[in-house]
Amino acid sequence: MSLNIAVDGPAGAGKSTIAKLVAKKKNIIYVDTGAMYRAIALYILRKGTDINDPDAVSKDCLGANVTIGYEDGAQIVYLNGENVNAYLRTEEVGNTASKTSAIPAVRARIFDLQQKLARENDCIMDGRDIGSVVLPNANPKIFLTASSEVRAKRRFDELTAKGETPDFDKIKADIEQRDYQDMHREISPLVKADDAHLIDTSDMTIDEVVDTICSLIV
Question: How many domains would you assign to the chain?
């Protein structure tokens, strides 16, 4: 049976950063769920499907097979066997993904692909509904969080380091609004699974969080 680790939590909690480090430390696959949605969007774009037609998108997305692997230590996203890393971060793909990911059939397709990856590989997966919906049998399940103040400060520092002049209060308000939307959305809302370990990273270093999660892996 594969080792599956689920990491859920609100925006800005550091899920992706932590999950990648745990994956490296434990030599398992980090499943980038956001990249999977982008790969589906790329497929839809290449087919010329009308992204404003949910029925057409629902039908065409079934032809996309998305897998994740590694080459020379770097994570590769494969779309029907093709390495599509170079195409996933374009603005067009991102904008398309934001629309197509709201379509139930696309989410269902990603759900199937995520479960297939988890059956076939030792992996860690992060998101909003991994422990509660996608990998209900994952062990351990982690719910990673931090106060909205801390998450806003992290984002503020990140943008400042890039030379931008962000508004802290706006960042904090946006995070709190995102939390509300994630917890109250109709499909797969953000929720802590009953058997998930709650880890508040507000006063923890990255290394401390990684070590805490690794200590829970049996």
Answer: 2
pLDDT per residue as tens digits for the range 128-140: 889 999 999 999 9
Q: Write down the pLDDT at residue 150.
A: 95
**Coil, strand or helix at 3:** coil
pLDDT (0 to 100) of residue 11 = 83
Domain end position, chosen among 67, 90, 121: 121
* Calpha distance 115→134 (Å, rounded): 7
Instruction: Determine what percent of the chain is predicted with pLDDT higher than 70.
Output: 100
Low-confidence ranges of the chain (pLDDT < 70): 1
Strands 66-71 and 197-200: unpaired
Dihedrals phi, psi of 173, to nearest 5 degrees: -65, -40
DSSP strand pairing (197-200 vs 123-127): unpaired
Measured CA to CA, the distance from residue 150 to residue 132 in angstroms comes to 25
* 59 touches 44 (CB < 8 A): no
Residue-level pLDDT at 184:
85
Q: Are residues 60 and 152 in the same domain?
A: no
From 66, 70, 93, 95, select the one nearest 82 (Cα to Cα). Answer: 66
- What's 165's domain CATH number? 3.40.50.300
